[in-house]
Amino acid sequence: MTFLALGVALAVLIGLAVMQLLFIGGRQVGEYVWGGQHRVATPRLRRAAVVAIVLYAEFALLLLSRAGVLPGGDTTAITAATWVLLAYCASSIALSAVSRSRRERIVQTPVSILLALGALVVAINGTGA
């Protein structure tokens, strides 16, 4: 179950990173990200998207470690960081659900739910699964 949840979470993170890359590249996907206020990225939002991509990569590494694919998953630091990540993912559900952008609400809310569920299973089961 952990590896299925890990796979779902990693797929979501990859999809989110691709969406940010499209946004950085000038594609008109802004209605799906960052509150949906800008169809095309402003310079500030481009920088924020780069930061988001880096964070997604760090989230992936954290989940891979907690699931036992990378070392250190049973350490207190990794365990605690995974629960913090889960809290972050759970908050993104609420933020996506109240977005002013209808498209962001429709797309990102279920995406956030999937990511949070994947992180929850990995957080609970850790390296033992």
From TrEMBL:
This is Integral membrane protein. Keywords: Membrane, Transmembrane, Transmembrane helix. It comes from Prauserella halophila. The keyword Membrane applies. It comes from the Bacteria. The lineage of its organism: Bacteria, Bacillati, Actinomycetota, Actinomycetes, Pseudonocardiales. The chain crosses the membrane at residues 6-24, 45-65, 77-98, 110-128.
